Fold this sequence. Notes:
With 161 residues, the protein is of the alpha/beta class. It has 4 helices and 4 strands, in the order ααββαβαβ. The chain has a 4-stranded mixed beta sheet with strand order 2-1-3-4, with helices on one face. Strand 1 and strand 2 form a beta hairpin. Helix 3 packs parallel to helix 4 (134-144). It is elongated. The mean pLDDT is 82.
Amino acid sequence: MDARSFAFGLSDEEGFLPPRGEYEPPEFDITAMVDLVFMMNIYFLVTFVTVAMGQLNLPMAKHVAPLDAESAVIFTLTRTLDGKGVNVYLGDSDKAEPIVEAAQQEKQIQAAVEQGKADGKTEVLLKAEKKVRLADLFRISTAATAEGMKLHVGVLEREKR
């Protein structure tokens, strides 16, 4: 018998190697691994914050004194209804007539601070709503500064209207 008769139509190279045109590169679906990494990050972040906040023990303030309302010129600042400006009220309450125009606000604030300084007051308190823009607060605090006067700014918490 001849050895060629047992080949069954295949040459020596075709029998042992896969055909060259049918090779596909391997693909890996790592979607589940990415999800797992994100879940682990969230777990570690929440655990760290919970543990860190549980161990936080802040000391009491030693060098702070409350502001005496009798020695301060007080202004209350609220945001306008359209959200583009700020209303300034002279005094501790927003029940009076507001000063709306920016030029008038600066003039009346400077006049009130000078009057307070002449009356012996040494501090200025700006009570601003949380929604007052920083640019407006900066403009008003600049107008409220005077030599020899300390400037205090506080956030006024309000009930939702």
